[in-house]
Amino acid sequence: MAGVKTHVVDILRDIPLEGLEIVYFYSLTRSDNGFLEDLQAIKARGIRCHEVPMRVELRVADDLRAFLQLWKLLREFRPQVLHLHSSKASGLGRLVKLALFPQPAVVYTPNAMACYRSAFYLWLERGLGWFTDVLIAVSASDGFTASSGQDLPLISKSLSMQDDSRYRLSLATRLQLSRPSSG
């Protein structure tokens, strides 16, 4: 298992779950047996998991099916935040956001951006950048590419958000989240 799935599995294995309800949408395309084991460990933590088949390449019929499946599941779940990762999932997720009410905030971590494949993919990524609320990027150049040059909060993956209240405040303010009261 490499790239995006490794990163997401690491997050889901370690994220504190207190006060959070997490639903993980994944595709088994290009997965190995190790991912299936990781998926069982994630489910054992109480994280709901749903498969949404997706291919890397653009295929209108397949992408429409994935869009409709995501829309149906997200309409039921009504998340406050969508944390999106791969180019395909983030593209579909940001489009689904537009069909939801209320609209969730979108956090995008571009682990493997398809926009480096061609000018067409770059155009798609920059257009979808307008539907992103917070960008967590590996580098400033990835951040600029994914943000369409907008003034999005850009958080470097190497930054420890626990050590920098400015970024924690920016993220919380941008997402306008409220925790359930403990009473």
Summarize the structure.
By secondary structure, the protein is an alpha/beta fold.
Unreliable spans are 157-183
Largest sheet: 4 strands, parallel
Proportion of helical residues: 40-55%
Radius of gyration, whole Å: 16 Å
Side by side, the strands of the main sheet go 3-4-5-6
**% residues in beta strands:** 5-15%
Output mean pLDDT. Answer: 77
What structural category characterises the helix and strand content?
alpha/beta
The shape is globular
Specify the number of helices: 7
Write structural notes for this entry.
By secondary structure, the protein is of the alpha/beta class. It has a domain of 96 residues. Helix content is 44%, strand content 13%. Strands 3-4-5-6 form a four-stranded parallel beta sheet. Strand 5, helix 6 and strand 6 form a beta-alpha-beta unit. The radius of gyration is 16 Å and the shape is globular.
